[in-house]
Every structure is written in structure tokens, then in C-alpha cells.
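Field reference: sequence -> structure
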Amino acid sequence: MDGLCSEDKLLVERMVNGYCRSGLLLGEDKRNRLCDIESQLAKTVAEFTANISNDASKLLFTRNELSGLPATFFADKPLVTTNGVEKYVICVTKPNSMLVLRLATLEETRKAMYVALFTKCPNNIELLQQAVDLRQEKAKILGFKSHASYTLDDLSMNNPDMVLDMLNTLRTQLTPMARRELAQLRAIKQADCESKGLEFTDFYDWDLAYYKRTKTECTHNIDSTLIKSYFHVPDVVCRLFALFEEIMQLRFCKVDASVWHPLVELYEVWDTNGFVGHCYLDLYARPRKYANGATFHIRSGFTRKTGAREYPAVALVTNFVQPTNGEPALLSHANLKTLVHEMGHVLHNLCSVTKWSMFHGTRVCRDFVECPSQMLENIIWTPSVLQKLGVHYQTKQPIPLCIVDAIIAAKPQVAGVFYLQKLFYAVYDISIYHSPSLHVDASLVYNTLEKNVALCNTGGIETIGAATTRQVVRGYDSKCFVYLWGQALAADMFSTRFGRDGVFNQQTWMEYRNVILRPGGSTDIMNCVHQFLGRKPQYNAFFTQIGLD
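Structure field:
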């Protein structure tokens, strides 16, 4: 490979490795079986994800049963009459369920929503099992111990045992913290029941979001509805773009164009050197839309034979509640976190400049792909940034510092439970894909670990949460640990560089853009992290961030 540049050499190495990992060196019978497996997997994964997107589960509630929900929640909800009683039709979608679980004052309402959410898509259990079995068989044919061994082989953390060691170490630290938090929440629920003259039985999964919010609001005098009034979606988007222009020299210009839905917006992105790429924003929920927040490549950037650039296009997708009947679209702080996280992926794709599309943007090692987004999340826990982004949608007054301080003070609340949930999915994922056996009962493993790792209490109700674990089936199989791994790297980068240089330091952001975002996957990303930090990564900042110091 004499005469090739480093990116060309990496391309050749990846292509040769890819052919080998696809079975090129195997005999005809095994290659044919691999082809069959890939075909079956494609159909299985497509059907699994389609079942989630197309699920039409609904619940009927009276207005009283939905006590605690804001008036805006009911604006687009149809009414039906059942036995002479008017009830709202509530689709069991992620946006609806999260609001009900956080805000509904009646436990029976929260319980009904929780059970509906975690018992939908029952056909997916068989599809999940098929996907796991097929992947295990494929790994064995290719000479790997397990699907996890096969998947992690070309990552920075390339050994399943390394991943399990990391997760077990973190579990040891998080579990006592989470138990203390759950005990506090249990006591809050018990006191709440006693004050209302209700019988207290236990603390269940459907209580978690509600009493976490209650604890946060009471401890830090936070009014969630008031906070949302300062984060009007169009204003936040505009101010985020202004921030990116200030710190990274990126200018977002809205343009009129043909798009796939009237609420979708298209932006051209420019910097001081010229055109950068296109960004689509598809922010609002609608039926049969992809249910989670995500960023999708529409077109990757690369260099043509002529030397001209093919510029990237990327779509940011979320499921915020639509503005309806004069009611504005407002974001909770958690919604703001989702938006900024996905913006991190957008920036990665826009700022990357590579010769080959294979290495463009987020096409880095899978165990680093979430890190730039998690790094960007840190800005919404910075008072000066929140004051830039938060403006009341009616009065146009900036968010008061006292509210900003309360938001930031509330960050560590129930952090142990939060990260233990992430750890549960990572442990579950690596457990089903790193079995020495060709067959492992994926649903049984889920239910066992949910209780033993995540400390869940479903009150004896049989749930099938595994049926909607989209990331385990599509894209993050054996790699769900990357959220925790990336969080640690992100905390270190933000604390070390922006904690020292300041969050509005354009020189540091431009260094971040050029050293971390620009190369995409065209070089060893851990060397880039080392260069940006000036040392090897450490995890003290992560432990401090989640309250484990």
C-alpha cells in the first residue's frame, strides 16, 4: 500500500477486514448459510422496529383520572363516550406515557399506563429471540466465541470481558446509591399516601418518575410547568443556532424547500470558509413516526475524484408535543437535553471532513459515537448557557437566575437510579449476546436482570419490556454500554477543557471541532481524545458528575 495516504490505507484495511467478517474466506456451504442468516436478520429487525412504530395501543381515561396533566396535554386528544361517560383517547406513545408517568396524581392511572407501555408489541418477543439466535449462529460460523466477541472486535473496547468488568465495577458503586434513593422515594410516597388517607402498599416502577419529580420540585422549589414556559421550541432552536455561530462559527440559515411533512424545516449551514451542509429538523410527534430521538444520515460528506466536496445532509428527529389550538410547543429541561444531545450528532456530521464517506461524521468506532453528543449535553447544566437559551414565550423575559440555579442543583437527584437503568440495559445487552450457548432466553434474561440489576418492582405484574428494546435489536446490539463509556469520556473532556477555558471560549470549541469532530472515523479516535485532553482519559469527572466522588 505504498503511496497511499493514511485514510486510504485505513479504507483498504477496513474493506479487507469487512470482507473477512462477512465470510469471504469460508467455504461455500458456510457462506450460503451466512447469506440466509443476513436475509432473515434483515426481515426480523425490520419487522421488530415496524411493530413498535406502528403500534396503536390506546387507553381511555376520564379527565379526573388524568388529574395533574396540563391543559395543553388534552388539546389534540379525541374524546369518546363509554357507558355515558366522556373519556380521552390516549395513545400509548413514548411522549404520552412519559407525561402521564411524571404528572398523573392517581396511582391507578400511572399503573395502567406503565402496564400498557411494557406489555405492548408481544409479537416482538419471538422476533427478538430470532435476532439473538441468528446473530449467535453467525458469530459461531465466523469463528467467534459469541456475537459480542464478533461485534466488539473492531472497537476501542474490543473484548466482552472488558465490558463486563467495567459494568460490574460501576454496578458495585451505583447499587448502594440507587438503594438509598429508592428508600427516599418510598418514604415520600408513603407520606403522600398518609396525607391523602390512602393505603400505602409499596413503591413500584410506575411511581418512579412521579415521585422523582415530586422530590426534585419540593427539595429545590422547582415548578416544572414554569420551567417549560422559558423553553419555547422555536426560540430554543434559534438561540441554539446563535450559540453555535458564536462558539463554532456555524451559521444556520432556514430555506424554503420540499420536505416530507409541513412541520419539517430545512437549514443550510455555513461557516467562514463557505458552505458546510444541510440540516433537517423534524421535531414534533405524529402517528407512525419513528418513536425516539435520533439523527439520521441523509447524505454523507466525501471528496470526489475531481477534488470537489460532496456536502453532508443530516436529519434531527424528536417527538416533542406539537403546538395545537394556540398552545405553544414547550420543552421540559429533559426535552432540552434530548434536543441538545441530537444536536451533538448533527454537529459531528456537519463538521466532519473526510476523504471517504465510510469515515464521515458519526461513522466512528461505535463505542465513541455517543460521546460528542454527551459532551454537548454539559452546556445545559451551565448557568450562563441556560440564561442564553431560556426566554419566556409570552413576556420574552430571560429565565431568572434563581430558576437556573434550582435546575442545576436538582441535577444529582436520583442519579443512582438513572444510571443504574442505563447499566441494566448494557448488562442485559452484553449478557444475551455473550453467551457460550447458541440459544439464550432473551426475555427471561431481561426480566431477571430488570429485578436484580435495575431494582425494578412491577408488583408481580408480568411485563415484556424486552419487546420494545429497539437498540438491542437494531444498531446497538452488544454495544449498549457505549452510553456509559461515552459519558465518562464526555465528562472528562468538558470538565478538563471547558471547565478551565470557559464554556464560551471559541478557541477551545474550534480546537474541539478540528481535533474531535473533523476526523470522523478516519483516524484512531482515542488518540484524538488524548490530544484534546493532553493526557490519557480519566474518569474522576464522571464519578463527580453523578455524585459518586
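Note: The beta strands are 58-61, 79-82, 85-91, 251-255, 265-271, 274-284, 294-299, 302-303, 309-310, 313-320.
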